[in-house]
Structures are given as structure tokens and as C-alpha cells.
Amino acid sequence: MAEERDFKCMRCGAVLKLPYTKGVMEERRCPKCGSNSIRLIKDKDKAPNNETKYMIKEYPKKVILKGGEQVVLRPLVKNDKQKLIDFFSRIPLEDRMFLKEDVTDENVIESWIKNLDYNRVIPIIAETEDEKIIGDATLHIRTFGWRRHVGEIRIVTDREFRRQHLGFLLAKEIFHQALSLKLEKVLAEMMENQIAAINVFKALGFVKEAVLKNHVMDLNGNKHSLIIMTQNVASLWEKISDIIEEGYRDMSGA
């Protein structure tokens, strides 16, 4: 039997009371904005000091790209499966070649969606006013072990929206989450010939800490050296804020 439960629209932020039947997948849409990016607010999300509650409460956020377009930043939710598939299908082969997983395989996306857990991976997406995903950033964290103070960042952006500070805005959100989780250090891994990605992280103050020879293999089976770059979370937060502020001064002519 259906019961009324609290849901949150991750597009407009509205909190809704909607019918819910455990174990039944239903398509829901927000009556205010029409989005289907609806997330059930679970009882554990309401618990004090719960990281998931913090994630749900502060989103969605609206930001302005360098070119003036407004986009929404919010966590990925289960109803985003098809939009995420569409996003990765637009990523050129030369960019997908260096991703850790085959993002054109719908089973990979299905696995991500099915196993969403903000306490292990925090996924922040950027979407346009017509709800098209144009960027995906993730913070991978450990809750125990000797690397629990370190997070790993991964960012992918739509080629059409590059040079618009989208990557920096997503990075800022990821590091905001890292700060809230009291992480001290973030790392990024990439292949040696991902020159553009290496230059972006260098601009953010990341430094090369290790090179593992022939450590990774691309989609074509070619081996490459793995570059590991790291940065202190607090220092990086300041660096990103400075870059974005400088970019907006350039845009406004100030």
C-alpha cells in the first residue's frame, strides 16, 4: 500500500509529499518545475550530522558560466540515468579514450545509478535550463583506512561548454564537499598524454607526485604511464575562488 513520503526536487529545490510504495519504481515529476529529478528523503537523511542530509539541503545551486549562461549544479539522482547516458554519448572518442570506464556501455551507467551512495562517491552534475547534463564531477572518498583523509576527483565536461569556467565551477563544488568532509588532500589521476587535463590541474596548483610507467591501458589496448597529481584542499579552494573571480572581472570588463 502506498504511503506519503517526503521527496525533494533536485532541480528547483521544492520539498514534496508524494505517494510511495517500497520496492516500486515510479516516474515522478515536480509539480512546480516539471523535472523528474526527484529524490526520496530517507529517514537517515534526517539524522543529525548526516552527510547525505547536508548534501540534499544545500542543492540545487544556480551558477553563471563565463559566457553568461545559467546552469544548475546538483547531485546525481537515480532518475538521471538516461540524461547521463546522453551526456557521455556526446563526449568525443579522443576524450573517452582516457576515462577509467567505458561510459558508452549502458551497463556501466546502470551500475553507477543503482549503487548511488553519497557516503562513498559524491557526484555533482551541471545541467542547462532544458535539463541537459553538460558536466559531471565526482569526489571518491574512503570512510576508513590509511587514505581516509584523501579524496580523488574526476571531472568530465561537454566540449561545447569548455573555456566557460564550467570545470572550475564543478571543481569548486567538489572541494566545497571535501572541506565539509574534513578531507586534507585531493588527487587526480590521468594518462601522460592527457596534456589538456594536466594543464588544467596545474593551473589549480596541483603538483605531480608520481609517474607509474605503463601502468594503465586505454580503450584500444595501448599502455600509458599514469600521472598522479595532488593538492591541499584548503589551498585549492582559495586558488579556484581566485580564478573564477578573475574570470568574471574579465567578462564584465572591470
Q: Would you give the CATH topology?
A: Aminopeptidase
Largest beta sheet, briefly? Answer: 8 strands, mixed
CATH architecture: 3-Layer(aba) Sandwich
User: Strand arrangement, largest sheet?
Assistant: 4-5-6-7-8-9-11-10
Q: How far apart lie the N and C ends? A: 60 Å
Q: Supply the number of structural domains.
A: 1
Total helical segments: 7
Mean pLDDT: 82
How many beta-strand runs? Answer: 11
Helix % is: 25-40%
Any overview of this molecule?
This protein is α+β, with helices and mostly antiparallel strands. The protein has one domain (62-252): Aminopeptidase. Helices cover 29% and strands 30% of the residues. It is built from 7 helices and 11 strands. It has helices spanning 51-58, 81-89, 93-96, 106-114, 166-180, 195-203, 233-252, and strands spanning 3-9, 15-20, 38-40, 61-64, 70-75, 121-127, 133-140, 150-157, 185-191, 207-217, 223-232. Strands 4-5-6-7-8-9-11-10 form an 8-stranded mixed β-sheet, with helices on both faces. The protein has a 3-stranded antiparallel β-sheet with strand order 2-1-3, with no helix packed on it. Helix 5 (166-180) runs antiparallel to helix 7. The longest helix has 20 residues, at 233-252. The chain is globular, with a radius of gyration of 19 Å. Residues 46-51 and 250-254 have low confidence and may be disordered.
